[in-house]
Each structure stands twice: as structure tokens, then as C-alpha cells.
Design a protein that fits this description.
mainly alpha; 59% helix; 0% strand
Length: 69
């Protein structure tokens, strides 16, 4: 099982070495990473407040009609 994890790690993208990014790009990404997490948390709180995760399941209907493309 460790070999699977090693293979997966070897395929992971290393932002500093695998992409053609400038040092300014990397600094910007590091700086804004924590801010994005806060935005995501507030967005998920908003969705929870409006009960977005408790929405009713839509009944799916299947029709036996045949058609051609």
C-alpha cells in the first residue's frame, strides 16, 4: 500500500518546480491562500444558513419512449 502512496506522491504537482511561474506568482498564491480558505468557510456557512444542504431530492421520472438521434 505504501507503493501506491509513493506513486501518487510522485505524480503530485509541485507548484514551485513543475509550472512556469515567476517568484511573484508564487508569492501571490501563498499570500492569498489563507484568505481563500476564509472566503470558502463563510460561503459554506451561508449555504448552511439557507438550508442549501437540506434541499429536497427531486423525483426522477423515466419514460419508456424510444427515440432516434
Amino acid at each position: 500500500m505504501t507503493s501506491l502512496m509513493e506513486k501518487r506522491r510522485s505524480k503530485d504537482l509541485d507548484l514551485e518546480n513543475d509550472l512556469l511561474l515567476s517568484s511573484n506568482d508564487l508569492a501571490f498564491m501563498r499570500k492569498n491562500n489563507s484568505q481563500d480558505a476564509q472566503d470558502l468557510e463563510s460561503y459554506l456557512d451561508f449555504l448552511d444558513d439557507i438550508d442549501a444542504f437540506k434541499s429536497k431530492k427531486i423525483k426522477t421520472e423515466f419514460y419508456k419512449a424510444e427515440f432516434e438521434l
